[in-house]
Amino acid sequence: MLVASLFGALAAVTALGATGRMVLVWVPVVGRPIAIVEEIPGPETGPVCPLDARYVDEPAVKLRPDVLAAWQRLRTAAGGQGVQLCVNDGKRSREQQARQFADAVQQFGSAELASKYVLQPDESMHVRGIAVDIQPLASAAWVERNGVAHGWCRRYENEPWHFEYDPAYTTSGCPALLPSATGS
Ligand SMILES: [Zn+2]
């Protein structure tokens, strides 16, 4: 809904600008830095995960910069204990997330059903650049045990591979698991 109204407002401003009656100015939007992060796409895929060929290991370079630094610290800590982590999915743009949602609508037959399985762009922590899906599950389990020291926590009961970064976790500990990201 927010996306639709934002695009609508931009289209209106652009149309007025084209008539020459209005000077185009960028109207500051609350949370604009996050909005920019949300337009940055992540890799569509990556090299095969050397631990398990069912997964890939995407370059994590498009994560929010502080999250990328935290990710590198986590990976180094894991490596120090002989554990390799593969990023099966990391950063997505709004557009990439919207495409995943559209695919789910096709697969499940309605937006209502799709929304039980896939988040809209405004809701996904992958779009905000703070989430990674870690595979294989043995590696994810290591992160679940050790990630909090680096600000990484599992968040959902139904996604043992999905971790989110928040520096506050290092002092508060991980929050209780939620049943799922979609609330279904
Ligand atoms: Zn995820």
TrEMBL record:
Matching SUPFAM superfamilies: Hedgehog/DD-peptidase
A molecular function (GO) term: carboxypeptidase activity
Pfam family, one: VanY
Transmembrane portions of the chain: none
Gene Ontology biological-process entries: proteolysis
Keyword Hydrolase part of the UniProt annotation: yes
Keywords attached to this entry: Carboxypeptidase, Hydrolase, Protease
D-alanyl-D-alanine carboxypeptidase-like core domain mapped to chain residues: 62-166
Protein name as catalogued: D-alanyl-D-alanine carboxypeptidase-like protein
Taxonomy of the source species: Bacteria, Bacillati, Actinomycetota, Actinomycetes, Pseudonocardiales
